[in-house]
Amino acid sequence: MDIRKTLLPIIILAVSAIGAAAQDSEKGVIGFDKDFENKTLRLDYVFAGNAKRQQIHFCEALSGGIWAGRRHSLDTVCLDGNGRLEVLDPETGKVLYVNSFSTLFQEWLSQEEATLTDKAFEECFQVPFPRRKINIRVSLYDIRGNVTTTLTHPIDPADIIIRPVPDNGFTHRYILKNGEPSECIDLAIVGDGYAAQDTAKFFSDAARAVEALTAHEPFTTLKGNFNIVAVAAVSKESGVSIPHEGIWKNTLLKCHFDTFYSARYLTAGSMKAVYDALAGVPFEHILVLSNTAVYGGGGIYNSILTCSADHPTFPKVLVHEFGHSFAGLGDEYYYDDGYDPMYVPEKEPWEPNLTTLADFASKWADMLPEGTPVPTPPDSIEKTRDVRKIWNTLPEETRKRLNGKLGVYEGGGYLSKGVYRPVQECRMKINECEDFCPVCTRAIRRTVSFYTK
Predict the structure, then answer these.
(1) Which of 41, 93, 240, 392 pairs as cysteine with 255 (C-beta 3.0–4.6 A)?
(2) Are 177 and 310 within one domain?
(3) Helices 199-214 and 314-327: crossing angle, nearest 10°?
(4) Beta-carbon neighbour count of residue 239 at 10 Å?
(5) How far apart are the C-alpha atoms of 324 and 447, rounded to whole Å?
């Protein structure tokens, strides 16, 4: 017998097995199970400081339910964001898991108040629960992408001080269920300003939120990738605080308007309270519905989305803000009054639908029709700057052109000069435009793919 003929099939099988294992490792399957349990580690921080100096303070670690985040591509991020949280091997420094984010604290740093005083903001993050000792590194970036402050601290999963997230007893109900948390993107909807007698209204409002979101492409097509759970958090009073009207409510999540003294900017006053309210349900993304008819909302990338539930524009505002919090889309509207810049000419924004032309090749240059001038002159109708007022009177063909004709149009990211957007009118520019533009649509699809594939 020729021993070479006997060994050859064995060698082929061995090589195939090694190749299959390598593929699984690349997908993160082996890596996840090796380094993490199917459980969640919650990390609470305080971000503090002023426009010149910032600090990160670690508060506590808590253990939660099953892990609802991704189990692949653990050492990469979808977008850069304004900050990054990394799980590190303490011996090798290898990144075992990473996620990017933005924060309300960093928005505040651009306000005049940040030049006059110090302030502190709560922040909460979730990572998969480690099987062994790890280091956590949290970093914040400025508008030029430079690290402004960082904190590295150890976590021992055997630490007896890591307490379980307490059960709050709140009722929850799945509005959309397409698979296990390991297979889908898990969005939690939680209410603020819903007293015990408002529970039925909350679930009705949450259902309207899901209907609004999935009525817009590409979410209509992609809704099979989502699980959406509604958590009926109970507040002591109905409604939320409206400081400019002198109205203060005792609510669980402390939602209020007038964030940064902007009447329509609605945010949650306690991130810890939000995360406590979601105890017992697997989630990656958060939508807070506020029980009010006052116009407002806000969306922060990989952090939180807040929206008033009863204003007539609720569906439109919700979808716009979800573009921020889920896909990291930037605002495409702008002002003419020298709004404080959040973008600088030499740095390409991390938001996929904005560019300063510093590195336009990394944005939607590949999508532009041949011969498109950069920058692109707007249509004459766009020059009126009153498009939102006349949008519904425009012929459908004109609306489609303004939403679908790709170019590089000046004005975006709150600045009328130096920042450019992909189309003249988009869901990220005006409420009157129902549709996301092709660039925003691609960004949303890429985000869904990042979490699910």
Answers:
(1) 240
(2) yes
(3) 70
(4) 21
(5) 12
Amino acid at residue number 328: G
Half-sphere exposure of 137 (CA within 13 A, CB side): 16
- Residue with the two structure tokens 């150890």: 154
Is residue 8 situated within a structural domain?
A: no
Contacts of residue 287, Cβ cutoff 8 Å, sequence gap at least 6: 187, 188, 189, 190, 209, 305, 306, 307, 318, 322, 325
DSSP 8-state symbol, 166 = P
pLDDT reported for residue 382: 67
- Residue 343: closest CA among 395, 399, 270, 421: 421
Reading the block at residue 413, the tokens are: 């990211």
CATH number at residue 226: 3.40.390.10
- Within 10 A of 170 (CB to CB), how many other CB atoms are there? 19
Query: Which residue is associated with the tokens 């651009």?
Result: 110
181 shares its domain with 319: yes
How many CB atoms neighbour CB 431 within 10 A? Answer: 15
Note the pLDDT of residue 13. 42
User: Tokens representing 136?
Assistant: 């956590």
pLDDT of residue 227: 98
Q: List the domain range (segments joined by +) for residue 389.
A: 334-452
pTM: 0.92
User: Comparing C-alpha atoms, which of 412, 262, 264, 407 is closest to residue 342?
Assistant: 412
d(CA 30, CA 24) in angstroms, rounded, equals 6
Instruction: Count Cα atoms within 13 angstroms, Cβ side, for 108.
Output: 23
Mean pLDDT, the chain cut into blocks of 10 residues (453 residues total): 42 42 46 95 98 98 96 97 98 98 97 97 98 98 96 98 94 97 97 98 98 97 98 98 98 98 97 96 98 98 98 96 98 84 94 98 97 93 76 92 96 95 97 95 98 93
- Non-local (6+) Cβ contacts of 381 within 8 A are 387, 394, 398, 402
The number of domains in the chain is 3
3-state SS assignment for residue 435? coil
Residue whose token pair is 């189990």: 71
